[in-house]
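Q: Hi! First time doing this. I have a protein sequence and I read that you can turn it into a structure. Is that right? Here it is:
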Amino acid sequence: MGRVIAVANQKGGVAKTTTVHALGAALAERGASVLVVDLDPQASLSFAAGVEDEPEPSMHEVMMGRASIDDILYESHGLDVAPSSIDLAGAEVHLLAKTGREYVLQRALRATTERYDFVLIDCPPSLGILTINGLTAAREVLIPLQAELLTLRGLGQLLETVTDVRSFTNPELEVAGAVITLFDSRTRLGRDVVARIRESHDIRILEPFIPKSVKVAESPGRGISILDHASSSRAAMAYRELAAHLEALT
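A: Yes, that's right. Below is the predicted 3D structure, encoded as structure tokens:
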């Protein structure tokens, strides 16, 4: 069975989707078979991977029990993509009234994960039932963090949620580590925040840090990852190195 990794942070704007896309592409470059799952109703990962607008069926139908993961897959530059759509927001409301709602994604992935070396789940920027589904289905959680002061408060909330998931739905869940994104090495603030994270939380910080790059912002509009858009950029090289480190973790 492949490694199932939820990429989660309830704070938006931390390059969570970019990290899923780029890490997936970097792992595929290294010869791994990779499935990326867009669990966010905003469907940013689907857009970034070049999937058509409002695909049908999508993860909405999967979470409603109307389709399997295999029914919705798209291929994008070496990745298999399980796309999302805005309809997934309605599925979240529907799930709130269902027994076993936390396990829907876990059950949906059960017949799929054996075909992949890695399954990366792009969780929405919230701590709602979709994110709980992602954390329950995963064995590891990867946390993208921007080196700014609000990060510390949000990280504590997310780690509390991880603890709750371990207690109630997924005792095997582990924190693979944090990824520092949008990092500007020229500022003292970024370095200070990273130091405070290390002091206040028992969490592995994976290196290298991902630098700010306009090339990263350009990639989604082209339907390709930063590795394909600007292969030799500092950000692309950092994601490749990060993928190698992630692959080596056990």
